[in-house]
Design brief:
- This protein is an alpha/beta fold.
- It has a single domain (26-321), classed as Aldolase class I (TIM Barrel).
- Helix content is 31%, strand content 16%.
- It contains nine helices and 13 strands.
- It has helices at residues 3-16, 51-55, 66-78, 99-108, 126-133, 153-160, 165-182, 202-209, 289-304, and strands at 27-28, 34-36, 83-85, 114-119, 141-148, 188-193, 217-222, 224-225, 238-239, 256-258, 263-266, 281-284, 320-321.
- It has a nine-stranded mixed β-sheet. A two-stranded parallel ribbon has the order 1-13.
- Helix 8 links the parallel strand 6 and strand 7.
- It is globular and about 55 Å long.
Length: 322
């Protein structure tokens, strides 16, 4: 196929809304996101996520305390972060019943410029929808993302290992309807995580999860996954290719994560959550900012000497920092 034909074929697929999960770019601008994990408890057991193994380990599964949240927010600001992510690494945002109170506090903070968050929408109840509509300073919210396991009940149960498709479908549609009625401009991203042979398009996803036609709803398709160092081995999934050249530190390592148990980590990526893996843990909320920064800089220094953290060695989401 000629180069022109390849381009036209790709363009056509994009217009039809099919997955065009791009290959890893060679480099990316460094990220600077502080993740605050309000809960590490999840109500799904996704086949592409290490949570089922984590749930069987000795990890302390809990919601972040109010004191832990206040300390995490303060430390994030003190360390110079102004963009927050409330996506649990392996957990569900709405499992913490005080989620709206904590996000509202962050939105009111004059040092926080923006934030975003993910949910699987199982607990996107009418009560939680009303809390979303009532959040202050909504212009600071970049987007609210939902991770969904397919466009039908059978695929959803295969991908998320729980029978909640109709609940999720109802919840997201209800949110879109109420946002439209309220004249909201909140951006909603609905990400369908699908097995390799699934043909669902973005257009189909929009019809299923946005029946109200909310203008700021966007569907995305994800069909390629990281096997998390061999923890994930599902024949129905496609996987990102291995990356052998990791000469420079990853662009994600400028991110910082405050977990529900009071630990501080570099990177908010799920690959750091393999059971027994702690190579990216750089301290706790009790540590001084100087101590945390020293440990972070040590990771960068070791990487440049080709001593790559064990969490990062098998990672297929790696991109070199510019």
């Amino acid at each position: 196929m000629s180069g022109l034909n390849k381009f036209l074929s790709r363009l056509l697929k994009n217009k039809q809304g099919e997955s065009l999960y791009s290959k890893n770019k060679k480099s990316q601008p460094s990220r600077n996101v502080a993740y605050i994990e309000l809960s590490n408890v999840c109500n799904a057991k996704c086949i592409f996520c290490p949570y089922p193994q984590i749930a069987e380990s000795d990890k302390n599964l809990q919601n972040m305390s109010a004191e832990g949240f206040a300390a995490s927010l303060n430390k994030a600001v003190e360390l110079g972060y102004s963009r927050l992510g409330f996506t649990p690494t392996t957990g569900e945002l709405f499992a913490n019943k005080r989620w709206a109170e904590h996000i509202a506090t962050a939105l009111r903070h004059d040092k926080i410029k923006s934030l975003y968050y993910y949910s699987n929408a199982i607990l996107l109840t009418d009560e939680n929808i009303e809390k979303i509509l009532a959040l202050p300073n909504p212009q600071k919210i970049e987007k609210f993302c939902f991770s969904v396991g397919g466009s039908d009940a059978a695929t959803y149960k295969k991908m998320f290992a729980v029978d909640k498709f109709e609940v999720v479908q109802r919840n997201i549609n209800s949110l879109c309807e109420k946002l439209k009625k309220a004249g909201s401009t909140l951006k909603i991203n609905c990400e369908l995580r699908l097995p390799k042979h699934d043909k669902t398009t973005k257009r189909t996803a929009e019809k299923i999860f946005n029946r109200a036609g909310y203008a700021n709803f966007h569907a995305n398709i994800v069909k390629i996954f990281d096997p998390i160092g061999g923890l994930i081995n599902e024949n129905d999934l496609d996987y990102l290719p291995e990356i052998t050249d990791k000469a420079t530190p990853c662009y994600r390592l400028n991110d910082i994560r405050f977990d529900a148990n009071g630990n501080v980590w570099m990177c908010g990526c799920v690959v750091s959550e393999r059971p027994g893996e702690s190579s990216l843990r750089i301290g706790s909320l009790a540590d001084t900012n100087e101590r945390i920064e020293q440990k972070r800089q040590a990771v960068f220094a070791h990487w440049r000497m080709r001593e790559i953290p064990s969490a990062c060695q098998p990672c297929r989401l790696y991109k070199a920092a510019m």
